[in-house]
Design the sequence.
């Protein structure tokens, strides 16, 4: 069951990524970051009426809410900035490093220890990221140099690291209460934090919403649905496995970047994305 939920999360994630990239043609980074979370609330908050509210909320829930919410606010801003600076087909595959980082963070934070075979997937993910950076073949180090020189790629690697910590905090919050209750609370916290960031950034307040609100609502729907699927999945399965399957969104995102946004060198980037996803599957099913 958690595998199906994880795959549904991947589909929602890929569609959300495409809508975010499209919306950046009309809105700035702060607005998209804010809308990404706030517009998901109408699809998440009603769940609170269908699930029991815990009679006692333990201390670890509040700690998880503050730390996880804060990290996700930072990751959201960096994520939108990354896809605004570089192509989807360059930035999104780097999120495959999240399950790699989870091999370290999950055993420490929540005691989720993958089987040894999962470490074999690390090499494939590295290989895919190496191929991803190929823009010229002048030196053997040119792929790594290309990744380093892409500002969006650097930011997305930071996002992958942050999410490798935040995903474990999500599990702590879910286990302390329920998947739906945690989803409502943490998304509301993130939305409030991003609202503060939006109003602090007064320089871009003028003409905040001109057109395209329907696209933002659709982005919110896929965000909300994907988040609920993910929270339910991690309450059943190991965090590294759930996030690994979620990264199937990479292939879908690269396809969207190449076919819809006409990003160049799709064949090479898609091949690299598939190699990275193969590594993800080694991790997921080890």
Sequence:
């Amino acid at each position: 069951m958690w595998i199906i939920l994880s795959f549904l999360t991947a589909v929602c994630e890929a569609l959300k990524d495409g809508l975010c990239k499209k919306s950046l043609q009309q809105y700035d980074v702060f607005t998209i970051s804010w809308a990404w979370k706030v517009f998901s609330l109408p699809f998440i908050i009603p769940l609170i009426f269908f699930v029991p509210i815990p009679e006692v909320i333990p201390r670890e829930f509040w700690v998880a809410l503050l730390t996880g919410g804060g990290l996700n606010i930072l990751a959201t801003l960096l994520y939108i900035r990354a896809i605004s600076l570089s192509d989807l087909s360059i930035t999104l595959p780097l999120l495959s490093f999240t399950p790699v980082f989870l091999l370290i963070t999950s055993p420490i934070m929540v005691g989720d220890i993958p089987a040894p075979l999962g470490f074999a997937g690390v090499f494939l993910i590295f290989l895919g990221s190496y191929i991803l950076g190929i823009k010229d073949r002048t030196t053997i180090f040119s792929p790594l140099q290309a990744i380093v020189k892409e500002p969006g790629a650097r930011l997305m690697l930071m996002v992958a690291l942050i999410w490798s910590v935040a995903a474990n905090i999500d599990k702590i919050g879910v286990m302390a209460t329920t998947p739906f209750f945690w989803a409502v609370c943490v998304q509301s916290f993130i939305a409030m934090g991003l609202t503060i960031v939006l109003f602090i950034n007064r320089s871009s307040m003028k003409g905040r919403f001109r057109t395209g609100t329907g696209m933002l609502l659709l982005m919110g729907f896929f965000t909300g649905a994907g988040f609920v699927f993910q929270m339910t999945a991690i309450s059943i399965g190991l965090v590294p496995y759930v996030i690994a399957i979620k990264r199937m969104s990479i292939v879908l995102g690269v396809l969207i970047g190449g076919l819809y946004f006409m990003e160049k060198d799709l064949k090479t980037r898609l091949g690299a994305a598939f190699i990275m996803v193969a590594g993800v599957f080694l991790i997921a099913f080890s």
Observations:
- The two ends are 17 Å apart (CA to CA).
- DSSP finds 14 helices and no strands in the chain.
- The mean pLDDT is 82.
